[in-house]
Amino acid sequence: MARSGFFTGLDIGTSTIKVLVAEFIGGEMNVIGVSKVKSAGVKDGIIVDIDAAAGAIKTAIEQAEEKAGVNIEKVNVSLPANSLQIEGTQGMIPVPSETKEIRDEDVDSVVKSALTKSVTPEREVITLIPEEFIIDGFQGIKDPRGMMGIRLEMRGILYTGPSTILHNLRKSVEKAGIALENIVISPLAMAQTVLNEGEREFGATVIDMGGGQTTVASMRNQELQYTNIYPEGGDYVTKDISKVLKTSRDIAEALKFNFGNANVEAASTTETVQVDVVGETSPIDVSERYLAEIISARIRHILERVKQDLDRGRVLEMPGGIVLAGGGAILPGVVELAEKVFGTNVKLYIPNQVGIRNPMFANVISLVEYVGNMTEVEAIAQNAVHNEELLRRKPIDVTPTYPTSSIQAVTPPPTRSVPAVPPAEPSAQATEKVADKPKLGDRVRSIFGSMFD
Asked: Minimal CA–CA distance to 321: which of 188, 206, 217?
């Protein structure tokens, strides 16, 4: 059953950082505030400069608080699927109470027993999702609380990720002055929200085309079957336009959104746009067809890389086809190009929340929906994982408790620190602004249309 209350989602992307505040009432999500700011300290979806990222996060939080009219004290953060590992796990405990009735504490204990599986030092448990509980051999139980038994078992799916990525994420949120409520795996939440019930059951794939990377997640039988990340996204299209036309990133970004088309056949060969070019004293005319060829080449390259891996895993055979999301998917012609590349049905996901009907908000929306729709048992499991990881990261005091007059005290060993990640130059956020030229001013159009209310 869905929870009630306020939930805040934080999506730390390569190009932008988004914050969404929503209230859940009776299972319905009502968005009350959203913000989007230029990202900093993030490269390919990974935080590489903690201070820069913390500053951008704080700005986004403050803007969301102003729009929502509430104070944000804790956030749920999405985690990209970089080096994500998925494996099955199970735990078992005897039911300790005299009445043998299973309580919240027993669910917590059986989850922690499943976390005893050896995890290498450079990795960390992100979450554990219970699939079923077994009471005295009776299987298929989703919520064992209130039932009676002697032995409680649990089978679930364990998700682990690199400790460095998780450390930098936590530290950035902490430096922004906000408490971290949950870390949610981005493709897992995205698949739950973007795909409908039938697609999640029979199989479909979500392709999230972000600014710095493209994330792929396939779900079947209500479980995440496959996920992968490709370090190319919408920012690479902007870079290509800038390099080929020898123009600034700002102008290239505006050309992409106002005149771009990923379907070369649909672009005009006669319609042109004037572009300021480095080394030229006056603007040059660029046809829409030529601009489309630049855009199509990069997007086709990304999609063909995805197709190779999906073919290898026979994922494209799933009847649900492909669902596109993310800011890189809103360009005209992307759906048509994807249909040609994948040879299957492709559709664009557009959120139905008032005011944010844009695919670029799919990630942060799915994050908040995932947390708001988390069952009580899933919440207990997530809390058990969180507490267990805190305990594992806590330095161990090995100082003897016996008198030190006869035996010299042992000095505690230094705590292993996570290796520092060298800061990368923050990616320049292109703005939707082109030099004010007569032809350009007359032809500027918006592709978003009804995506925004």
From this structure: 206
Q: Is the pLDDT of residue 14 over 70?
A: yes
pLDDT at 278 over 50: yes
Query: Model's pTM, two decimal places?
Result: 0.79
Q: How far apart are CA 270 and CA 285, in angstroms?
A: 11
Tokens for 321? 């086809």
42 and 426 Cβ atoms separated by less than 8 Å = yes
Per-residue pLDDT at 120: 83
Q: Count other Cβ atoms within 10 Å, centred on residue 145.
A: 16
Q: Which residue has the tokens 């697609």?
A: 199
Contact 350, 357 (CB under 8 A): yes
d(CA 315, CA 295): 26
Joined together, the tokens standing for residue 287 give: 């046809």
pLDDT value for 397: 43
Quote the CA–CA distance of 10 and 2 in Å, as a whole number. 20
Tokens representing residue 26 in the block: 């009776």
Q: Which of 212, 158, 156, 187 is nearest to 78 (CA)?
A: 187
Query: Could you give the CA distance from residue 141 to residue 154 in angstroms, rounded to a whole number?
Result: 9
Conformation bin of residue 197: beta by default, left when phi > 0, alpha when psi is -120 to 50: alpha
The residue that leads in pLDDT, 118 or 421, is 118
* 295/211 Cα distance (integer angstroms): 14
Using DSSP, state whether 285 is helix, strand or coil.
strand
Tell me the C-alpha to C-alpha distance, in Å, between residue 448 and each of 329, 429, 445.
11, 19, 9
DSSP-assigned states of every residue in 126-166: EEEEEEEEEETTEEEES--TT-B-SEEEEEEEEEEEEHHHH
Using 50, 70 and 90 to split pLDDT, how confident is the model at 353? confident
Q: How many CB atoms lie within 10 A of CB 97?
A: 11
Burial class (CB in 10 A: 0-12, 13-18, 19+), 428: middle
